[in-house]
UniProtKB/TrEMBL annotation:
The keyword Coiled coil does not apply. The lineage of its organism: Bacteria, Bacillati, Actinomycetota, Actinomycetes, Mycobacteriales. NCBIfam families: ligD_pol. This is Non-homologous end-joining DNA ligase. InterPro entries: LigD_pol_dom, NHEJ_LigD. Keywords: Ligase.
Amino acid sequence: MAGKSGTPAVELDVGERRVRISNPDRVYFPESGATKLDLVEYYLNVGDGIVNALRDRPCMLHRFPKGLAGDKVHQKRLPAGAPDWVPTVRVFFPRYGRHADELCVGELADVIWAVQMSTVEFHPWNSRRADTERPDEWRIDLDPMPDCPWSRVRRVAGVVHEVLDEFGAVGWPKTSGGKGLHVYVRIAPDHGFAEVRRAALAFAHEVERRAPDDVTTTWWRKDRDPKLLFVDYNQNARDHTIAAAYSVRGVPAATVSTPVRWDEIPDIDPRDFTIATVPARYRELGDLHAGIDDAVFDITPLIELADRERLEDPPDDE
């Protein structure tokens, strides 16, 4: 059967499911010519990794129905027309007084169906369906300001690693798919979003204290030095999401948010990780975040640090 473009659809067996890919030759990334089917094949190649990053988490989708040349859609609700086997979880948005049934990945076929529905980026919550109000993932977002060089990001990553070691926490770094780095820490789901955010703020202040020439925790963007790196603790606020490990980014170069080893960070260039290069790396190294669920950290010492420093929870948006 052909899609609207006249290109025959492709049917793929993904685990025990069959997923139909319409318009497989539609160009999604004009810079490289990568198509919708290329994107599907990328996610198949990193299947265990992307499922590990998304499993049981409410997930917002960044969809590009016409590829990058068209508009981007930020989709919280599951797109219409989903097969009955695609799982969801219901989450509430107090600001709007509404619920949404979001994709909640359980297997690779769920990911591939979302790509069929023009999803390029996957942005999961840091909590899971068992209790969406209690995060089990603390996210450290090293967000460079416009004039911040990559060398500064690398230096700050070293400080982050040092501080995590001192607290006894295992950090799992990855490129952001842009100019920054993310570090994830698995935590026990014993606290709400506000407490996790305060713990993240206390940690950010400690990193700033040790690297004052490189780091800012100034809340308002307009007040930040454009040469510094912002440790964005607000990524731990409720319903704030960032691209998952192994998520492709909706940018012309089709970069990927890629797990890396700590000892690689001094030498890597995040622009080298794309849908064309990451599958070979994955075949060689496997999922570098595969052990994250086995290294659970108790954030109580960071909450106590926030209490001692009388850190107040900042506004929920900039």
